[in-house]
Amino acid sequence: MRRALTFALLLAASTASAHPHVFADATVEVRFGARGLEGVRFAWAYDDFTSALIQQTYDRAATGRFSPAAVREIEAKEMDALRSFGYFVSVAVNGAPLAVTTIRDFAVETAKGRVIYLFTVPVAPPAAPSGTIAINVDDPTWYTAFALVEPVRVQAPASYEVACRLARDEQTKRPEGITCSYRRRAP
After folding, report:
1. Which of 61, 108, 170, 181 lies deepest, with the highest CB count within 10 Å?
2. How many alpha carbons fall within 13 Å on the CB side of residue 137?
3. DSSP character for 87?
């Protein structure tokens, strides 16, 4: 309840002042299987203040870890609210945007005092044996500032060759998105 109230107050403040109040580093792992691209795994490591709020709200025993019940509660209260925003992620395969309407494998971890949300966006394997994947994380409400961080991880069988890079704005050098090229190797 306290987290929901804090979120509402900060969201109202962010709408009025149009600047972020939550900061998160976002890492990405592109996952291929035998039939092709299967999903994109995201990890959001929240800033110290937001992490403290999440821990105070959901780590009721103050253990530094989240119980399975707490993880389910976080997913229900925090992540389900992002569904209408496509979970703040965009994925396009061969130029076709993917409608991000569901996530799977949600988990919550802590590392060095920071809370990390992990989840996978499932992708139906594309028919093309080669192509490109464009990935980004962005909050259109300006409430959360995401910073994509390297390395971009790839999990793929030997039958696929995958190369990913983090694009940066030429002037500011800020991360702008991830582009991956993939190719199924000839048998």
Report:
1. 108
2. 27
3. G
